[in-house]
Design brief:
Layout: H1 9-12, E1 21-25, H2 31-41, E2 45-49, H3 60-63, E3 73-76, E4 85-88, H4 90-101, H5 109-137, H6 148-167, H7 181-194, H8 209-219, H9 222-227
Amino acid sequence: MPDLSSFPIATRWPAQHPDRIQLYSLNTPNGVKASIMLEETGLAYEPHLVDIMKNESHTPEFLSLNPNGKIPAIIDPDGPGGQPLGLFESGAILMYLADKSGKFLSADPAQRWETIQWVFFQMASIGPMFGQVGFFNKFAGKEYADRRPLERYVAESKRLLGVLDTRLDGGDWIMGDDYSIADIATLGWVNNLITFYEARDIVAYDSFRNVVAWLERGLARPAVQRGLKIPGRD
């Protein structure tokens, strides 16, 4: 049986199944990247709820695994060389799980790197910009009298949706015919933008028809539906 005692996080969130990948997360747009990927690949895992609203991601135990204090993070008890591996950053987790499972990231070097660049597009652009729209449209930022920040982030989010819409022209997925970690990285953020962030109208979402159809295809996948709820609050 794998020994996770060297990971302090396992003392706060004990493993019932230490032979499985341990997922420390919440079903936010970043968190669901890992849960969707785990559901899609069929890799055995055990989810642990880290309630960021209670600052649980800033406890000493969580910070011992991710010093940046962000979800998701994982421990793979059967990492490289058969040794346990702790990992944070959702994009890195997606790439690691793709390599481990042999799924959703092409072995062809050119296609592999093209896929990775679209993962980075989500990480560097879609996530931060959509998150700012959420803050200024729904949360504390909506009380700001100065509307310029919201207008700036809405305009940039529209531009990014346009980039994605152009990329999806003529293809079902970001990589054309192949569903990949680029889609898994991005689906939760686009879905969150128009649901939880309530920004569908202000970003003119329905005008991006390729994106609309892509999100519908993604949400129709059973693993995506499961992953969007894991781990959720009771």
